[in-house]
Amino acid sequence: MKRLWAALAAAVLLLGTSLAEDLSQADLIEEIDLPEAGETLLATDVEYFTPNEINGHSCDHLPCFWNLPMGQMDEEAIWKVLTQPVTVLKGAQREQIRVRKDPDASCEEFVGVVTCASQCVHVLERGEEWTQIEAYSSCEEDSTVKVWALPFRGWVKTSLLEEKEVDQTYGLVIDKLQQRLYVFKEGKLLSTLLCSTGFPRADTPFAETPAGEFLIVSWTGGFWAGELFCDMGMRINSGILIHEVPCLFETNKTTGAEERNYRRCERYLGEKASHGCIRVQRRSTPEGISISWLWKNLHKTPCTKVIIWDEIGRVLDYPNDNLELYWNPNGGKMYHSQPTCSEVKDKFEPMTAFLYNELEEKPYKNLTRCPACAPQLRRSEIDTVNEKNNREAK
């Protein structure tokens, strides 16, 4: 924004002193249509919806995930939800409960699946024997219930319900539309990380990552997914983990040492790409946050809560033209969200600013997005996100 003020000041001087005296600071602000206080310049939803509004339901629970506008970065509202106690179903971490359409043990029609211990349920009507709940279905590949990551309402035995407190220091929000993971600490947004949630295909609908509220219930560590190695896995929903972006192990031809190669999967951070897990960037943000930081710092008792926003019914708008981006004109090949970044050597910082509406012009049009500081998508990439976002609530 300093560049805009400098340009305006120069224009005023050219027009003459008398005209300059007639133009107040307020006039200048109105002329360039600066955002109001608290208004973000980043890409946001065209219109905000709560899960309840998308699903055609309502409740008077406040604060509540189901009444939280998805995509709206209201730190106070998000933090209230992140720190609220939750209700889960009793059972082992990988055990799943089929939820009945009617409150009757003889009912064989199931409307969804809930994972025990980690997946939080929305209690709608509690009875002595049966309770009506709401959640996003967590059906897995071999499930007899074919409701893939969609919201549902149904009945479970009241004896299965268990109340749990959650961590009051940290909380995570994952936005499936923007493919970003937001780290909150003590009521404030601490940092933004790139991630990849599930990428379902026609023959793999179970790969979609369910939305909702979850608890990080165990630190499971590294595991193999075919030839890919996924490190620092933290379980949030049966087979769904938050983990480092996968790598391949390759032998260095010069030293003979075995090394990790992240190129195959790292380039897809910021878009859907996984089999259901949440892949998270390994590179540190300007605030020093990465998957390694999450692994070492998130609290285990009580569990850290994770909110996952769905993309159903949402449309992403472009960032403001006046949003400042940054690059290193001395050979830099990436554009950044901040003037300093872990991917840039100190001698080139602070980097040079330019505006978002210049991103398709020379010398910026060939710059790639930084994999560390989560800069905004190009307009064409936002168009692609919206075109691919064709999921619907049933």
State the share of residues found in helices, binned by percent: 10-25%
Shape estimate: globular
Number of helices: 8
Binned strand content: 25-35%
Query: Mind summarizing the main beta sheet?
Result: 9 strands, mixed
> What is the topology, as strand order, of the major beta sheet?
11-18-8-9-10-17-14-13-12
Distance between the termini: 45 Å
Order of helices and strands: HHHHHEEEEEEEEEEEEEEEEHEHEEEEEH
Radius of gyration: 24 Å
Q: Structural class, please?
A: alpha+beta
Explain what the structure shows:
This protein is α+β, with helices and mostly antiparallel strands and 394 residues long. Among the domains are: 2-32; 324-383, no CATH class. It has eight helices and 22 strands. The chain has helices at residues 2-15, 17-22, 25-32, 51-55, 75-82, 263-266, 291-297, 379-388, and strands at 86-89, 96-100, 110-115, 122-126, 130-138, 148-157, 161-164, 170-175, 180-185, 188-196, 212-215, 218-225, 228-237, 240-244, 248-251, 258-261, 278-280, 305-309, 324-327, 334-335, 352-355, 368-369. The strands form seven sheets. Strands 11-18-8-9-10-17-14-13-12 form a nine-stranded mixed beta sheet. Strands 4-5-6 form a three-stranded antiparallel beta sheet, with no helix packed on it. Strands 1-7 form a two-stranded antiparallel ribbon. Strand 9 and strand 10 (188-196) form a beta hairpin. The longest helix is centred in the N-terminal third of the chain and has 14 residues, at 2-15. The chain is globular, with a radius of gyration of 24 Å. The two termini are 45 Å apart. Residues 1-35 have low confidence and may be disordered.
